[in-house]
Amino acid sequence: MKDKIRVGSVSYLNALPLLYGMRQGMLKEDAELIIDYPSAIAADLVAGKIDVGLVPVAVIPQVKEAQIVTRYGIGCDGEVATVCLFSEVPLEEIKEVLLDYQSRTSVALVKLLFQNYWKRAPQWVPAYPGYESRITGTTAGLVIGDRAFLQRKHAKYMYDLGAAWKEFTGLPFLFAAWIANKTLPETFLIEFNKVNQFGLDHIPDIVKTIGYTHYDLQYYFTENIDYCLDKNKEMALKLFLEMISTNQ
Fold it and tell me: Does 83-169 match 5-75+173-230 at the fold level?
């Protein structure tokens, strides 16, 4: 019995189209799917606990033999809807920012935007489960993933990081990509790419299955999220990694 390739993925709604094929039984003989939040999957990839993961791109420099293995990922070309800075006061009045514990790329991105685009220097505060209730007064909070859909319903101010990056650079953004920490069999990679595309071909079915009511998921999957890793996203990824390396 051959060892299965360990595939790790984020647990957010935006990953569902990329996982749909595997959850329908595709690759079941070749792969084991492991689900967690982004920073945990990233840590597993760095530690070698998984072989390939849909991980925040900020972790790429820490992954030994890191290689992007599909033409799919989680990106945007403007508003992303689920990576946002929420506040009760305008940007210029923010004194501190609570940083989402589930994120790496988004934390790096918000710091980069404050320093290079918004030209402000708030205090950075590590946050833990339940921190959303602390977004009050001059304390803002970075909230990512499905929780951002809920947060946007009652936040007075919302700054979408996908839109801010687009305004700053003119480029799309890539939040997560399928990264391997070793060379994987070519036959597996061919099928894995087909699995990703299978989900994108069945987005209406996925939306019906979920029955989500807090946001229009058809719009989210087709307008907010851009799943294709094209040349512009490769340019954006290169720029982002260079900028966060310089800012460290």
Answer: yes
Measuring CA to CA, which residue among 68, 43, 42 is closest to residue 55? 42
State the pTM of this model: 0.93
Class of domain 83-169: alpha beta
Going from the first residue of the chain to its last (248 residues), give the mean pLDDT of each consecutive group of 10, the final group possibly shorter.
Answer: 85 93 92 89 93 93 93 97 97 96 88 96 93 95 93 93 98 96 95 96 95 93 97 96 83
Q: Which residues contact 94 (CB under 8 A, 6 or more apart)?
A: 87, 120, 122, 138, 139, 140
d(Cα 172, Cα 38) in Å, to the nearest integer? 20
Q: Show me where the domains of the chain are located.
A: 5-75+173-230, 83-169
Could you please state the CATH topology (level 3) that the domain comprising 5-75+173-230 is classified under. Answer: D-Maltodextrin-Binding Protein; domain 2 (3.40.190)
Q: What is the CB neighbour count within 10 angstroms for residue 170?
A: 9
